[in-house]
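Lesson 9: reading folded outputs for more than one chain in a single document. The general rule is that every protein is listed as its sequence immediately followed by its structure tokens, and records are never interleaved. Here is the first one.
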Amino acid sequence: MSVTESVVQNGIGEDLGIAFLNSVVNSLNAALKDNGVVDRATREKVLSAFVFDFAMKLDQPDEITVNDAGFTPVLCFRSSDDESKLVYSTAFDYHDYAHANVFGALDAEEQGEP
């Protein structure tokens, strides 16, 4: 696949980023429960620490050097309608949503929501 277009779309890009972060929270939460970490307070501490650190790696990334070239990670999303279109946002910071996503996922779980 050859990427030919990269589009900054702050509105939908932010929505996509928040949805992705929520997916990460749900995946890690499920892994914790599957491995015997059932106490909500313990899972909340682990989730909050991991998700905040993960988000900071997107917001304030360290440069990664490969073959003497420097790179920084950028989270973007490929359109299912046009695979050459990548969407991302520059208007928000992932870490601003990290804790809210954790609390929202745990509260939804307590209320029996998927």
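And here is the second record, again sequence then tokens.
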Amino acid sequence: MRCLLNYFALLLLVPLLLAGTMWVRSYNVSDELCIDLARREGSVWSYARHGLVAGRGRLVYCRRGWSVHRAPNDPPAVHIELNAYKPIEPWQGYPTSTSALGRWGFAA
């Protein structure tokens, strides 16, 4: 039983160490991870870009959507992008309120 408890404690410790390392790193480098996913809706491909931006101890999640007309038998590939920048305040690039459909963000 004690071995099982130690195993679960170790499993909880690993994400905590990774989060701490990323938080310390965010004061030196701002990282951005974006993933573009597409799904077919009739003759239109609907895209959604999900992004995480970390900088100066903050984390921002954002989502943006758009549509593209493509051949129905030509599915687009999943696009993953990882960028590193000089340290920035990540929430300044995103308005607090927007009227654009499908665009929103969350800062923590």
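What the second record shows: The two ends are 37 Å apart (CA to CA).
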